[in-house]
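Aim 2 progress update. The chain analyzed this quarter is reproduced below.
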Amino acid sequence: MTASPLVTLDLTGATADNVIAVARHNAQIRIAPQVLEELATVRSHIDALASADTPVYGISTGFGALATRHIAPEDRAKLQRSLIRSHAAGMGEPVEREVVRALMFLRAKTLASGRTGVRPVVLETMVGLLNAGITPVVREYGSLGCSGDLAPLSHCALVLMGEGEATDREGVQRPVPELLAEAGLEPVELAEKEGLALVNGTDGMLGQLLMALADLEELADIADATAAMSVEAQMGTDQVFRAELHEPLRPHPGQGRSAANMYNFLSGSPIVASHREGDGRVQDAYSLRCSPQVTGAVRDTIAHARLVATRELAAAIDNPVVLPSGEVTSNGNFHGAPVAYVLDFLAIAVADLGSIAERRTDRMLDPARSRDLPAFLADDPGVDSGMMIAQYTQAGLVAENKRLAVPASVDSIPSSAMQEDHVSLGWHAARKLRTAVGNLRRILAIEMLIAGRALDLRKPLQPGPATGAVLELLRTKVAGPGEDRFLSAEMEAACELLATGEVHRVLEPHLAK
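Predicted structure tokens:
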């Protein structure tokens, strides 16, 4: 995989594109010199507080419900080690490499802000791990999304210390000391404040939000395209997608964008033109006619979530935090509610987008509603089952996404002896959204596959240039109509065309500007 351009960490933070570049495309990271200078300056305040007689939370005290205990100087290195070791308490399967890289880069971004009080070596080692392709093993369960993504970040911090579990650039798990030595990195002995600084952030849930947004922005365009293919396949009209029926009458930006996409995708379609006159139907079904209203609402939800994510990217989350004045003070900015809410909101939107796609698909398989298409698009209905069970799979994915749309953020389980008595469960919201986005991609792939077969069955009538380009691409991986054959592999191949961005690339010339 080709590395993305160099990403520079400076005092202004990071962008969503930076996060994607590092997480998914192995971009190398450079630390701006002024960052290291700022870290050294801020660290001098921490050292002064550490040597003072007055206890300061996170520097010379215990943590959480144990914050009342003053820790003697000779025990503070042990305090930091104990914090990370005890908090690296995740269980379950390892989460995906890109998720770990995203949360590490976001934590590095906050360390680089100068508001956490860590020494330059801590940031340099974190960046060194990312640049070397060393990925800590982070387990599925462990974060409550309050006091930060504690367990996931602790598993990462443990690797900085030369402990824990990690994989190399090829994904092979190897001893951490061996990986560090190979990369020319020394284990870090954490000093006062540094343990908390490494684990007190919303980085896991935010990283997954940013990646979901990148995926969903593309999938919204795909949904417009598969909907357009379904309109053609069912001999529907393009007239309900005209601009004057959207922006002037109902000015939701997302709806206008999706309607414009669908109108563009259907432009020049011989299938649509073939029944423009003399068609006795007054209106198409809701799943066809209202596609821009639903996909557009998803787009507007994405826009709101993007605003929240952008604000969170600009944050420097730690507790306690070092203010520009040098004051070190407690706060509650680690609480994940803002991110958790939009993760849940997106899961609702994703579930509904998949639901309307499945309804469009089902219509193409039912001869009572499909406008003269064979039952289940089968070659010999009765002998062949055609696409019958593909819709079953699609319906099962829709059903799962409905379950995943149940909000995580409305739940809360108190922890830390009731000191942390309200938590966001943002990590859980992020994990279920990630699953739902993957399911949506499969749902749209099945609609594309079935609509593509229906379009072939409309020959000699041809689809429009945009939908025709999608069908042509699909036919490079999946054969057209015929006798029943092994369907699972074809469904996976169609999904892969979406996942790799190939379908989106053929649509780009036809997207609304």
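The beta strands are 7-9, 29-31, 91-94, 135-136, 139-141, 166-167, 173-174, 321-322, 328-329. The chain has a mean pLDDT of 94. These observations will guide the mutagenesis experiments scheduled for the next reporting period.
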